[in-house]
């Protein structure tokens, strides 16, 4: 099977024993590595109040990564638009586009990217904790568009920026909205795979051509852990499983070291829940990963894949992306 373009999702994960400065250096190293391997784009995601994720100031980090690379597209996967005034996002990404022309993507989500108390701290207004995402998106598009003589407020920079907008989601809501607006759509199968096929079907069924796209363009976000052997990959992937186990239990800490076995750590019902939540994760040697990727692509017909690797050791993480790039032929594009 011919593989579609493959991109990298980075949450700037803070590993056990590291601080934020070290984390950002690891993200820069990963971005430069991904660029050299021929991956399509490098995205960062907005999360707040999470000790294991350092990408809260997403626009700042995008600028830092873009300044330390030269060709790879850099963007958000995503900015949680309800946390922000659309004017501010138009200005921030207009600035990024002016600094790095033709390399910036704006992926948008409607979840808070955090817990309720933090959402309250971000949005401030207790009477408007769940603003209408459709209206926010329309307002953002307005500020990214041309400025009329009668327009009292405009984004400088930001207007006429032409920064591509992507809609992200883990349900059919964003899929339908992306379809109706003719925007590219990204499904978050890396943490909520349940509605993947239904969302893709809806997106393709209701897609309306637009100035952005003449046909649907669907990306699937997945977790992937590759190593030289299946056994080594399974060992490295226990970091990912421990992270999600902590989320199930409502306990968050820095990204943990891998362990020899998960069996002493989880209860039977937790194991079932985790296996369901991580059912689309790619784990194994290149040969095993190829079979898993072939199956995913045959079911989804994805136009692009975005891969997040929750691997504790930096050298092993970089090697995982090397194996993936060789497998999908990223350097040949």
From TrEMBL:
Coiled-coil residue spans: none
GO terms for cellular component: cytosol
Gene Ontology molecular function: any one: monooxygenase activity
Classification via Gene3D superfamilies: Luciferase-like domain (3.20.20.30)
Any Pfam family matching the protein: Bac_luciferase
InterPro entries: Bact_Lucif_Oxidored, CmoO-like, Luciferase-like_dom, Luciferase-like_sf
Keyword Signal appears in the UniProt entry: no
Signal sequence coordinates: none
Highest taxon, organism lineage: Bacteria
Keyword annotations of the record: Monooxygenase, Oxidoreductase
The keyword Metal-binding belongs to this UniProt entry's keyword annotation: no
Family: To bacterial alkanal monooxygenase alpha and beta chains.
Entries under PANTHER family matching the protein: LUCIFERASE-LIKE MONOOXYGENASE
Name the record gives this protein: Luciferase-like monooxygenase
